[in-house]
């Protein structure tokens, strides 16, 4: 039902580009999706549902209490960071390069052996994640877009990193089916305590109904073993016609994912359309609603769905309207910022800041703060590093890696 005209709309990454869009099919799609989800939910036990989140609150802007140190610049749209046991760090660039920052300086030569990636628009090289036993096995995981403009999708490869190059590269997962266009890949992954990992997969922008279709990986979070095989205790294993890797469904474009060992929670952020960006707590076999329910509107101003809640569909913990465009998510458990312990940090692309979501001990949102908003850089990723500091990378042509340190730190804390 594509309309015979093009409009300029902001994509999830809030870069303006020309994309064909569908306007009138939204409510029809939602109705179809309700029918699909009702079928899929038939065997879900009744549980106490999360209540609807409060209306979005203005965040307090905080400019004191921390200082910012530039670790590297000259990166081409850095997307993700991983911290190695020797204190160095790996950084992905969306264009398809993997870079090493060692001894505090960005090494001029990219790491070799990276898989070929599909680039353009939002496509490219995304996440880098270390195997939990990296210190012993040197295994890293990369997520990326692969294929052609007409047929592409989110993939995962793993390899051994020997300090200079990737070896024994193995593609271990390909999202199915392939899609066209270069939007909404998801692409964040996080290891869980049982040695499996979760991967977010976007719905491809033009395929929103697929988020409710359990025969498709689009708009899902999948759970896999470390070798890419499907864990036998995944929620849909053994059900005919359902992709067994699916862990949760009804997602739009999830680009933030972090497992917090202390609370045992898997947190996720995803881009809404115009408004309705979400923070969710991910639980197996649950339907997070897109596009049946949403707090956002379509870019055209039309309804995506008339519903913000439906029985059996999960509510977000909080949502952001207008959209901050969340990408990158960290749980801070370090000791350099005692006041920030147990809080979530969200990289905001569109709003060009680092968002602190202050949680109480039970995990309830107390309030929110904006950090780094005087820099006017799109924050693509945020990580709580083993050294206790927070690191962010900026989604720019001349992208930076920055370290946040307490403003009142003692000399003994400075390395
Ligand atoms: Ca949702």
Structure description:
The protein contains two helices and 27 strands. The chain has 415 residues and is mostly beta strands. The strands form seven sheets. Strands 3-24-23-22-21 form a five-stranded mixed β-sheet, with no helix packed on it. It is 5% helix and 38% strand. It has helices at 26-40, 134-137, and strands at 7-10, 16-19, 60-61, 66-75, 78-83, 89-93, 97-102, 105-106, 125-130, 139-147, 152-161, 166-174, 189-191, 197-201, 220-224, 246-249, 253-260, 265-271, 277-281, 318-320, 326-332, 343-348, 353-359, 365-371, 379-384, 390-394, 399-406. The longest helix has 15 residues, at 26-40. Strand 23 (353-359) and strand 24 (365-371) form a beta hairpin. The radius of gyration is 20 Å and the shape is globular. Mean pLDDT is 90; it is low at 1-11, 14-30, 32-45 and 411-415. The protein has one domain: TolB, C-terminal domain (Neuraminidase, 6 Propeller). The structure holds calcium ion (CA). Residues 278, 288-290, 316 line the site of calcium ion.
């Amino acid at each position: 039902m594509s309309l015979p005209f093009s409009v300029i709309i902001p994509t999830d990454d809030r870069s303006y580009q020309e994309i064909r869009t569908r306007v009138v099919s939204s409510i029809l799609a939602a109705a179809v999706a309700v029918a699909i989800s009702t079928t899929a939910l038939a065997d879900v036990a009744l549980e106490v549902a999360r209540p609807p989140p409060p209306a979005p609150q203005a965040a307090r802007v905080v400019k004191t209490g921390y200082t910012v140190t530039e670790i590297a610049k000259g990166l081409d749209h850095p997307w993700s960071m991983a911290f190695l046991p020797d204190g160095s760090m790996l950084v992905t660039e969306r264009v398809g390069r993997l870079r090493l920052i060692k001894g505090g300086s960005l090494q001029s030569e990219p790491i070799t052996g990276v898989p070929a990636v599909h680039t353009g628009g939002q496509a490219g090289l995304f996440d880098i994640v270390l195997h939990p036993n990296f210190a012993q096995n040197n295994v890293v995981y990369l997520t990326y877009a692969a294929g052609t403009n007409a047929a592409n999708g989110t993939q995962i490869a793993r390899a051994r990193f020997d300090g200079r190059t990737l070896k024994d590269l193995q593609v271990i997962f390909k999202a199915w089916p392939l899609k066209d266009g270069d939007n909404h890949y998801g692409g964040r992954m996080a290891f869980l305590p049982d040695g499996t990992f979760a991967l977010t997969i976007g719905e491809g922008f033009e395929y929103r109904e697929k988020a409710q279709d359990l025969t498709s990986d689009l708009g899902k979070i999948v759970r896999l073993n470390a070798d890419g095989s499907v864990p036998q205790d995944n929620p849909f294993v053994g059900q005919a016609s359902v992709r067994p890797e699916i862990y949760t469904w009804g997602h739009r474009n999830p680009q933030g994912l972090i497992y917090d060992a202390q609370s045992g929670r898997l947190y996720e952020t995803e881009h809404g359309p115009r408004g309705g960006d979400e923070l969710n707590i991910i639980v197996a076999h649950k339907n997070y609603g897109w596009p049946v329910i949403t707090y956002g509107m379509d870019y055209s101003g039309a309804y995506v769905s008339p519903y913000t809640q439906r029985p059996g569909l999960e509510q977000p913990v909080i949502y952001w309207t207008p959209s901050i465009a969340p990408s990158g998510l960290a749980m801070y458990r370090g000791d350099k910022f005692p006041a920030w312990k147990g809080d979530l940090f969200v990289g905001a692309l569109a709003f060009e800041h680092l968002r602190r979501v202050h949680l109480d001990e039970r995990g309830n949102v107390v309030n929110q703060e904006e950090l780094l908003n005087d820099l006017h850089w799109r924050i693509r990723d945020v990580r709580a590093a083993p050294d206790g500091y927070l690191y962010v990378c900026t989604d720019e042509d001349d992208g930076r890696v920055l370290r946040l340190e307490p403003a009142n730190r003692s000399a003994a804390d400075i390395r």
